[in-house]
Amino acid sequence: MFLEQLKKEFLKIFTDKAVIITVIGGVLFYAVLYPQPYLNQLPLQQSIAVVDHDNTPTSRRLIRYANATPQVHVAQHVGSISEARSLLLDGKVRGMLVIPRHFQKDLGLSRSPVIGLAGDANFFLVYGTVIEGLAGAVMSTGATARVRELMLAGIPLSFAVKDWSPIHLNERPLFNVGMGYLGYVIPAIFILILQQTLLLASALIGAESNEKSGLEFRRAGSVFGARFVAMFVVYFLLTQFYMGACFSYYGISRNAGIFDLWMMIAAFISASTALGILIGLLLPRRELAAPMVMLSSLPMAFTAGFIWPRELLPYPVLWISEWFPSTPAIQGFLKLNQMGAEFSQVLNHWWSLWVLAGFFSVLSLILLTRKARPVQITEAV
Amino acid sequence: MSLFSKAFQTELRVVRKDRWLFALVFWLPPVLSLFMLLIFSAGQPTNLSVGVVDLDQSSLSRKVERYLEASPALNVTRHYSSIAEGKADISDAGIYALVVIPANLSRDMMRGEAPSISTFFNAQYLLIAKAIRSALIQIEITLAVELDVGRTLVKTPVTKAALAKSMPVRSQISALYNLNMNYATFLVPALLAALFQLLVICVTILSLGRRSKQSDSQRPEGTGIRLASRSFLYTCVFSIHILVALAFLYGVLGWPHQLSLGGLLPLVILFVIACQLLGAFFYVLTFDLVRSLSLAGAFSAPAFAFLGVTFPASDMTVFAQFWRDLMPAAHYLNGFLNQVSYAAGAAHSLKPGLLMLAFTILIPVIIFRIKDQQAGAE
């Protein structure tokens, strides 16, 4: 009996056009589409405008330093700040460097002149890049001046170079070493894509049965079990495809051991499948599945903790986000696969997924049995 | 006119009867908007957990730690006796960064050997990593200046001159248009644009499909007017939703802005209409509710990534830029940002407005497909 039902559920996945488009089409389409904006990894060579009120060898050296950084590119020299502003408004430049009059003289007299740096903070990533580049150039100019001064005071060059600052801070980015965008977004968002297409597919299948008569619900346990197993198998394979071929193609690190990964995948797929079946049982009409599932994507992505720290979420938001399988799944997978954590360190996420899987399964079974009841009564009569 | 108002009222009745459509049209938009706003209610990443390995245990190392504590972005939550212990905690995100103060920090400092403090930070969470890094750079500069001033004061006993010696050039950094670097003001307008694009497209398809499912008015005459009047309801409702949301953000919460209703109104209405046209286009492609919604979902669910607020549009690949241009939300957001922060004149919103107006080229396609289908049905 169960095998027959299982065959039926597999057939549903592969014969229902909307479902197969979602499962295979969606997963493949997003694997190509989603990384598109981030393929260039880092925004570099941002255009800036320079306002040089000094026009001396030192000020020109500062401009050269700025242009030499990978972050910025001096696109325009203008005579006033207001000109630079209007360029910024037109989107021709993203930032500006303002060198005051008497810059060289003040530097020579140790009056610490002030350089103006500005960037368009509407675009944080661009702003950060522009300021990083410009501040670096200013720092180098300062360092050059300092080293020269120390050498004049009779300190040998090798010492002067080391001594221009009394203390250094060494920054070592871990895991996503290049601090690129692809390695940041893809490992997390791909998990969300898997979950969302899975939810949509099982909701479509579930709602399809709702629209039909209650005949299908005679054996609640067997229907649930078969639907669960069919989805589980398909998505276990698709997850392998994402975390194997796709991650390797996009150069995303895969640190987790295969058994650890499988354990996590099993928990993640179980929780998502159970939730999908539940949603399918709740929706009265098939067409509601896509809007409902798609609308939940943004809230799910932004509460999963890889963009915004979860410690800073207000309590109600935090509470709601704990019901999404993607929340523990993204954290668990990132830690295992990207951050090289041991399985014992992600046990809490693993258990959360199983708790969700159990909870959604029980609810689905209750709903299925309820739907089955009236049919049984008519049969008894 | 009577045909117009009749169709408008019928549509209103349909929406009120359908619990799910009613939710999508009336109460889900504000609830979802509020949810997105609440996520970023902290404004800036603050109190991010940091661990410290202090191998020096001197007054100087304790000073470094005090500086870490003093930074609003950071919060020293754990101390370790070795780097290995701390690194394990980075791996399970117990801490976001580990500051390692080397042995002999104090001694090297005295000898003028410029010791270095190493910081390991989790770059997987990019936004958090950037916040931590800029906090650390601030601390480095302050610390360097303070220590250096202390050193030079011995030789040049005038504080101002000593300060100048340790900082030969200073920079004054201005974050234009988003002065307090608030993430809510930066992300929420874009999130709303993506959210409303998805909502309007889905609702349009649902309404079109639902009416043709009932197939009560399949008469071909007046199709255009009937469609327009039915859609007019959603144009109104969603424009009002967006305007109310914006009024809440910039009026009630007092986010800084240079908006005017006169500039905003056409932009919002054009945005909603462009989304409706796109939704209708998706519907007439298949005339199948479920499939057209899947198409529309596939198109608009990842919209946020393409809007270009997090990763700049100018640095996207050519294909991504093309895909982005197909989205009304991208043009709306361009126009909106021009208005909200640059106080740009009408000329600067004209281009996004015209680009959204370009979606009207879909109208003949939609009408043609519907007529075609009606002819086929007869």
Describe this structure in words.
- Chain A has 381 residues and is α/β, with parallel strands linked by helices.
- In chain A, 65% of the residues lie in helices and 9% in strands.
- In chain A, strands 2-1-3-4 form a four-stranded mixed β-sheet, sandwiched between helices.
- In chain A, helix 9 (220-249) crosses helix 10 and helix 14 packs antiparallel against helix 15 (347-380).
- Chain B has helices at residues 2-17, 19-39, 59-70, 83-91, 105-110, 126-155, 159-166, 183-214, 223-252, 261-286, 289-300, 303-307, 318-325, 328-342, 346-357, 362-377; strands at residues 48-54, 74-80, 97-101, 116-122, 170-176.
- In chain B, helix 9 (223-252) crosses helix 10 and helix 14 (328-342) runs antiparallel to helix 15.
- In chain B, 68% of the residues lie in helices and 9% in strands.
- With 378 residues, chain B is of the alpha/beta class.
- The longest helix of chain B is centred in the middle third of the chain and has 32 residues, at 183-214.
- Chains A and B meet through helix 2, strand 4, helix 6, helix 7 and strand 5 of A and helix 2, helix 4, strand 4, helix 6 and helix 7 of B.
- Strand 4 of chain A pairs parallel with strand 5 of chain B.
Which key features would you list for this structure?
heterodimer; A: 381 residues; alpha/beta; abc type-2 transporter like fold; 2 domains; four-stranded mixed beta sheet; 15 helices; 5 strands; B: 378 residues; 16 helices
SSE layout and pairing:
The complex is a heterodimer of chains A (381) and B (378).
Chain A: H1 2-15, H2 17-33, E1 46-52, H3 57-68, E2 72-78, H4 81-89, E3 95-99, H5 103-108, E4 114-120, H6 124-152, H7 157-163, E5 168-174, H8 182-211, H9 220-249, H10 258-282, H11 289-295, H12 297-303, H13 315-321, H14 326-338, H15 347-380
Parallel strand pairs in A: 1-2, 1-3
Antiparallel strand pairs in A: 3-4
Chain B: H1 2-17, H2 19-39, E1 48-54, H3 59-70, E2 74-80, H4 83-91, E3 97-101, H5 105-110, E4 116-122, H6 126-155, H7 159-166, E5 170-176, H8 183-214, H9 223-252, H10 261-286, H11 289-300, H12 303-307, H13 318-325, H14 328-342, H15 346-357, H16 362-377
Parallel strand pairs in B: 1-2, 1-3
Antiparallel strand pairs in B: 3-4
